[in-house]
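Annotated sample (chain length 825).
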Amino acid sequence: MGSMFRSEEVSLAQLFLPTAAAYTCVSQLGELGLVEFRDLNASVSAFQRRFVVDVRRCEELEKTFTFLQEEVRRAGLALPPPEGGLPAPPPRDLLRIQEESDRLAQELRDVRGNEQALRVQLHKLQLHAAVLGQGQGPSLAAIHTDGSSERTPLLQPPKGPHQDLRVNFVAGAVEPHKAAALERLLWRACRGFLIASFRETEQQLEDPVTGEPATWMTFLISYWGEQIGQKIRKITDCFHCHVFPFEEQEEARRGALQQLQQQSQELREVLGETERFLNQVLGRVQRLLPPWQVQIRKMKAVYLALNQCSVSATYKCLIAEAWCATRDLPAVQQALHDSSSEAGVSAVVHRIPCRDMPPTLIRTTRFTASFQAIVDAYGVGRYQEVNPAPYTIITFPFLFAVMFGDVGHGLLMFLFALAMVLAEDRPAIKTAKNEIWQTFFGGRYLLLLMGLFSVYTGFIYNECFSRATVIFPSGWSVAAMANQSGWSDKFLANHPLLSLDPNITGVFLGPYPFGIDPIWSLAVNHLTFLNSFKMKMSVILGVTHMAFGVVLGVFNHIHFGQWHRLVLETLPELVFLLGLFGYLVFMVIYKWLRVSAAGAASAPSILIHFINMFLFSRSPTNRPLFPGQEVVQSALVVLALATVPVLLLGTPLFLRWNHHRRLRRAGQLQDEVKTGLLDSPDARGSDEEKAEHPGDQEEAKFVLSEVFMHQAIHTIEFCLGCISNTASYLRLWALSLAHAQLSEVLWAMVMRIGLGMGREMGVVALVLVPVFAAFAVLTVAILLVMEGLSAFLHALRLHWVEFQNKFYSGTGYKLNPFTFSMEDQ
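Output written by the structure step:
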């Protein structure tokens, strides 16, 4: 079978890598992405491995790269995507990359530091200019001559022994939220021996740290006395104020202001040159950093892989073990030969035997990836067991469509998925960061088939946005009924509901060519008819689906050489399932084929027959479907019950007998038997037993109680599961009915009312625009998104619980190859 139906054959290969070419060989294997290395140094700590120094150097470089990347983002720039196909650099290039990156980082630190210092200096000059600008007004004496009587004494020159004291000034700037507290503290500490003037700057100044514009408060304080001045300076220092020299003479202040403006202009020019140089350095970082990041990540991955290899001092080489698909071994050998040819000694690859269960490798395409993801979400398949994904490609969309059947809704889903499929190669679509969009895009082919199958089941149900369509002529004739039944005007007036009798000639002309006849959408018993149809259809689909799962288990038993399981497990399971619920399906189909319209009134009840089957009784009022039905039913129940002890005890007793037989044959031939088991079909077949019973890997550790307990759980789960799982498939009927009724309610509550309003008001077009918009929004939000998600989850449960547990264990692990594909992104 192909790799899609069963995981590929995977071998354990041993690689002998020359020391001089080991890095090149592992790098080439990373480009191929075909092998998964096993850690041969699991008992050695990460700090004691051979290439730990190289790994640390790569990690230090990654820290430098992070700093450079943050600087680029800080400048509002973006790193371009790296060019594809960059190989891992040779080890000698590590020193060159490290030196260049350190030099760029140091240049950025120096330039950023200089720029910061220049901005701080320019900010201080601007604050100083603002403070001097505050003092350009009238003199302080003139300002306060007409002040309040409370402050007038402060402005009078002191008399007496202190009359020679002169007025001094303290000028500076403070943050606005500190200004009120500063003014209060100055007034209380200096007891009013000062005059303080606070004013906001006319223009907002750029903060040198954050770069955001901010308003500052400038202050000008006049005081008398040296002690008062010391107090003022200490208080301003506590508030982290910027204090600047303030000349008493206006001419001196004007000259200082001009000098500050000139210095600010010079600083702006220097700052512009600094920013231009910074942009040049950032441009070099933008050009060099993306390829460096890819190369160093690849180099680190190579050294981490080399740390998993063991060192052979005898042969002066590195020894590695890796899982690889058998068909890829020649490609691996050729790649290693090409990589090690320059070293003079070619690398060697050869298969080695292994008793461990190999990893699972299933190659997928764009189309099959989403279906394989559904299976892997349940559990990764065991090595070489049957893969449910190929069958899920058909069964999953179909079961979804059974619950979601509507031509209109399915067509909308199909067109949405088709648009994603047609645009899947566009870079903007692939690189979208929205998680919901990524989820839909990843399952675009699944949505495509779900929509397509929904259109198909919608034609079967004859529903398009809950409306029936007349594609073919109806199989029912009202004219024939009216002509032969003698309907009069009085009869029609007294009977608003009319019934069509299929037993009258010409009333029922034959079945509808495809799907349900559209006349049923007009019938009062429409819901009753669809309930009966969909319920029986759900049981038929469920039993068929489960039986198919049991049959798929046959391929597992044949492949693993477990022939006893065919007789002791698969055959009893089929007899139990088909003997009980297969017979139920037979009765449904038999009744459809044998009971005609003439005998519909006295048709037997399948449900009562099925209940009587388990009670070994009969109902006088319920006639049999066929002669000898009671005998057949009793025989099927007895046969189904007889398979339970076979299913429970057969496998444990056979394994116990086989175990003792092997022990008797072991003796002196034990070594030869172990060697032969590696190549015999039994060895391949033992993979399942090793996965299910780890104790069976060694024959001496066989424990009957564990095997019996496992088989008892399997038997109880299967027998009870056949009943519960069959009932679980009735969700197909329930979800289909709910979807149809929601569609009907939405049409009746929105579109039908809108159409009625249009006729009354005479403005059909004007009314239908908002009505149709509301109908479209509700259809997408409720019926497509919510109902679609509900049907998806129920179909998922039917596959995981009811279908896959019949043959699929899901206890394996994926082959995780060493590859650089993720490093290139």
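Annotation: The CA atoms of residues 45 and 295 lie 26 Å apart.
Annotation: The chain has 26 helices and eleven strands.
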